[in-house]
Amino acid sequence: MADVKIGAYICKGCGIGERLDAKQMMQVASRDAKAHLVREHEFLCNAEGVQMIKNDIANEGVNRVAICACSRRSKTDAFNFEGVAITRGNIREGVIWVRPNTEEARETTQEMAEDYVRMAVIEAKFMTPPSKNTEAKYDRTILVVGGGVSGMTSAIEAAKAGYPVHIVEKASALGGNAANFLRRVPQKSPYANPEDSGVAGLIKAIQADSKIKVHLNSTITRTSGAPGRFAVDITTESGATATEHFGAIVQATGFHDYDANKLPELGYGKSPNVVTQLELEKMAKAANGAVLKTKDGKEIKSVVFVQCAGQRSSKEGHLPYCSGHCCSTSIKQAMYFKDQNPTIDTNVIYSDLRTPGTGGEEFYRSGQRKGVTFTKGVVSEVVNGSDGLDVKFKDLILNQDVVEKADLVVLATGMIANSGVNIDEVKQDEPGEWKSSPESVLNLSYRQGKDIPLLKHGFNDSHFICFPYETRRTGIYTTGPVRRPMDLLQAQEDATGAALKAIQSIESAAQGLAVHPRVGDLSFPSFRREGCTQCKRCTVECPFGAIDEDEQRFPVFNESRCRRCGTCMGACPVRVISFENYSVDTVGQQLKNINIPEEFEEKPRILVLACENDAYPALDMAAMRKIEYSAWARIIPVRCLGSVNLIWLTDALNSGYDGVVMMGCQKGENYQCHFVKGSEIAQVRMSKVDDTLKTLNLEVERVATYEVAITDIERAPRLINDMAEAVKKVGLSPFKF
Amino acid sequence: MAEIVATNQTILVVGGGISGMTAALEAAECGKHVILVEKTPSIGGRIGQLYRYFPKLCHPTCGLEINLKRLRGNKNLRLLTMTEVADVQGQAGNYTVTLKTQPRFINENCTACGACGEAVKAEFADEHNYGLGKRKGAYLPNAMAYPQRYVLDPRIIGTADAEAAKAACKFNAIDLDMQVETKTLTVGAIIWATGWRPFDASKIQPYGYDRYPNVITSVEFERLADPHGPTGGKLLRPSDGKEAKNVAFIQCAGSRDRNYLKHCSRICCMASLKQATYVREKFADAGDVSIYYIDIRAIDRIDDFHQKVKADPKVKFIKSKVAKIEQDKVGNPVVHGVDTEGYTRYATAHDLVVLAIGMEPSVAANNFPIKVKVNESGFIEQDEANGAIFAAGCSSDALDVNRAVQSATASALRAIQVINRVAGTEG
After folding, report:
1. Which residue range(s) make up the domain with B144?
2. Within this chain, do residues B215 and B327 fall inside the same structural domain, yes or no?
3. Contact in structure between B403 and B392 (CB atoms under 8 Å)
4. B73, B148: one domain
5. Whether residue B190 sits in one domain with residue B148
6. A396 and A278 share a domain?
């Protein structure tokens, strides 16, 4: 790396020149912050201003660029220079737009701007343009776990884009649950009749595809590595193990049927003529077009479908969720009877009939046309009657209790995800004692556990509405009913998307680039081994399970598993973890290098650490509306509140800041932190701040942590002002030297 | 317009809502060259107009911020706003597309300083707020707008306002002579992500949307709840600005109805459940909600949210297709119908009625620039006959955001398959 050469650029556009003394800011940049080259410009983001910076990079050897102009969220197209580290001093949204244009405010506004200039230059000084991860590997092969419709679809779609695929399937044949289907719900207009399940077609396509290799009767007994370099042990039923290498993994392990024996009130287990949807499907498939009969060989004249059997219920042992497909499935199955013999009575007893979209609603209408009856009601009991089964239910429309006779009762029971072990309950084996578990799907050697963390009800779906593929294990994507109950059409769409994410992860890992949400970030955590105390906080707190431990219990970072949130950096008590472009120093030196006015000046300083994705944009948008806040605030955006190291707070308090405000995302069940646990972890860490404050003999009011949403455009400035008020009450910090 | 490089290995994405953005980003992040075109001056689409998402009640702008950051940092992706696809010719792996870009009258010099907005006097209905409230003739479409650049409304061109805007700009960013530009490009695959539009509520004659000010649509209600919206986040009814504490939601307004949209629009049940929480959050026990429904379609694990709202005694569920809405003397809409659970007639007055309006495809079947196969509701079917034109999101079906993003991600792979075939890298 060449010597650090910092160029600082002060923009005078957008009213900055009129409101602030640019010459003074230039002096601060050169004299105080020691920028090597300082320039001002009337309009820095225009072609000429940008060219000026480019010339300095090319001719003056500038390799750190401190842009003192608008927010880091603005004019990113203009201020985009290759191969140099760029920092932004926010003197527009962060200063002139949030301060009144009055004579009495002039001095404090100027001080605010000068501090941001100082901070931008200092940050640049401690920043290095990220170099490439030397661990990066390019392995284009994708592992698909599970050979049902989801897994087969992922495999076929990835292969179509040119990527080799291995499918590992536990059973002796491909097809999964859908292999038992006589037909599927129609996927195309006019959505009137059940259609071929498509399973045979998928199997045939796989057999014909030289890029896809299938391992039947096989399971995964160990998965280690990272995107671009996964090493996976595939073990056959006979115990033979082969280690294969993959770039990414798609987990499509599907679902199994809810155990209907838990529903004796609905007659299951008491009569052979009470079956689940999946069992009826097997019967229909076995009959292969012949007339369906009861188990005792009788003709079926009436069928009742009981929707939500053991589902959408808070009863002990029942499933709380809706499995999504069962309404359409019952319509399809009722058609099996109606299409054979329209005189067979088919009654679907439901609470809410859920057939969404065009296909769903058209199919529902087709069922009605074919004479399927739909009854809004709640079934209480199914018992053996004098002639067949008696279905007792409350008809909610007629508001009366009804008993209906049926030759066959079909229970729409729910889907249960085959998601392996719940790592919150089953802890990982200690290093050196790792053993494969037959309950696990992936058998990850990762420090945090053998399978992917679950979201809810045993499914390992993404928590993010905008980002449905985000699992908490980089390069491993789940798809199909293992992540959320879904029908075949959705599973196929989902599996296609999951294949794309696997490909993307492979291509990103090969170049050492981060994936979501800091896509393209080239930096990765590095640590100073000599200083490490093997405390394991980083391995435990990493939201993505990226960090393992070696035999001596030192952390192993697995760069391409890392999402660059910096939670490990925030966790480290001895501060040995850092990123090239984000470190304890890039933030710590900023806050240590601003001018703390002497006590008699009565100018408090408030440090604000704001999540760059939500709180910081909220403050920007407040500025666009010219919502004012205290001139004492100095705001530093952070990747995540989880990256905040306590030393920043201690340093700030020790150097005379009067207050510290931290703004992170919502935590708890509906957490909004895109690094999953960052804001929560920060809160836990900050609970210890009171002790620090007490040791320093400072008031607890001086530090406040808030959950701030991107829409909090009025609240975020108010929280800063609240701290200014609190400081007024408790007085200035005694630590001003 | 700066030079645009496109080849038959380029993917064109049409529509910059959540689906188009996602498809474009997912493909670009696989290293593919993508051009994203958006008809309006900024991207984000309908999700930018939502206050919260169900079931997490998180803010759509949070994910939008992440997506904008992805977009700003991606060199494979080229965004063209105010641009529509005028024509498409050719076949998979080799399409010739004609793009038509409307003048923005403001160039890249714009710093979004806001001086032009202050100088201009003329005001127009604010599209971002579905016409509730006004915006200036020189405006930033919304606080999250990307590109972060002002726009001049074409209606002020030739007026004194346009000159005033030009005079106010210190950065030479206003170019009143900008013209419509047409460009012809070659691309290999096209992702069609033009999304949905709310069904025209005034067509549902018995509900009186066009006659009663206090009958509004769900998309409008969303703007009322938003602190960035026309009422600053207060739930005020249009007729008299009174707080709407007793709110009725009419499900299947336009949907599941032969007279209007035959399909189920999927999202409306969850949207109303979500909006019910807005009323309860703002007014606590003074808030009352009635949901008139046929079936509550809170599908799969999000049924949790339905159960939670259902447990709230201040939210009533009435199984009924509302027959008609009238207005009483004080401007309250009165909802008439029969509660089918027990068959009782009702005529209930509310402060405000929200029509859970259905989704229809933004582009009508006969308006596509090239022939594509659509279903009876006008949504694009996945069909080989469509060549390398792939639907993403709500141009393929009525979808919630989560499913739209899945669909967009899948469409990105379908496009990449074509591009890799063209490039000869699939093997």
Report:
1. 115-168
2. yes
3. no
4. no
5. no
6. yes
Of A466, A496, A500, the CB nearest to B18: A466
What is the model's pLDDT at position A692? 87
**Of A357, A456, A469, which is closest to B264 when you measure between CB atoms?**
A357
Select the residue of A15, A361, A465 nearest B56 (Cβ to Cβ): A465
Residues of A in contact with B59 (CB under 8 A): 672, 709-711
What is the reported pLDDT for A736?
86
> In this structure, how many other beta carbons lie within 10 angstroms of the beta carbon of residue A695?
10
Q: Check CB contact of A188 with chain B, cutoff 8 Å.
A: yes
Provide the residue range defining the domain that includes A458. Answer: 142-254+418-510
Residues 256-295 of A with CB under 8 A from B: none
CB contact under 8 Å between A469 and B409, yes or no, is yes
> CA-CA-CA-CA torsion for B390, B393, B394, B400, nearest 10 degrees?
160
Same domain, B126 and B207: no
What is the domain count for chain A?
A: 3
pLDDT for B1: 47
Mark yes or no for CB contact B299/A362 under 8 Å.
no
C-alpha distance from A473 to closest chain B C-alpha (Å):
18
Q: Which of B144, B7, B109, B146 is CA-nearest to residue A614?
A: B144
Task: Dump pLDDT digits (tens) for B173-182.
Answer: 999 999 999 9
- Residue from the list A162, A324, A465 with its beta carbon closest to the beta carbon of B300: A324
Q: What is the pTM of this model?
A: 0.97
CATH number, residue A271: 3.50.50.60
CA–CA separation, A65 and A146 (whole Å)? 50
Q: Is the domain of B235 the same as that of B333?
A: yes
CB neighbour list of residue A168: distance below 8 Å, 6 or more residues apart: A143, A144, A145, A146, A147, A215, A218, A219, A220, A234
Q: Specify the length of chain B in residues.
A: 427
Low-confidence ranges of chain A (pLDDT < 70): 1-2
User: Which residues in chain B come in under a pLDDT of 70?
Assistant: 1-2, 426-427
Residues of A in contact with B148 (CB under 8 A): 73-75
Q: Which residues of A touch B170 (CB under 8 A)?
A: 13, 43
- Does one domain contain both A170 and A209? yes
Select the residue of A365, A397, A519 nearest B70 (Cβ to Cβ): A519
Q: Judge whether B101 and B146 are in contact, CB under 8 Å.
A: no
Q: Give chain B's domain count.
A: 3
Do the domain assignments include residue B211?
Answer: yes
Residue B190 sits in the same domain as residue B337: no
Tokens standing for A56?
Answer: 């300095």
Give pLDDT, residue A136.
Answer: 84
Which of B11, B21, B22, B29 to substitute to test the interface with A, most A CBs within 10 Å?
B29
Measuring CA to CA, which residue among A78, A107, A111 is closest to residue A94?
A111
Query: Same domain, yes or no, for A116 and A156?
Result: no
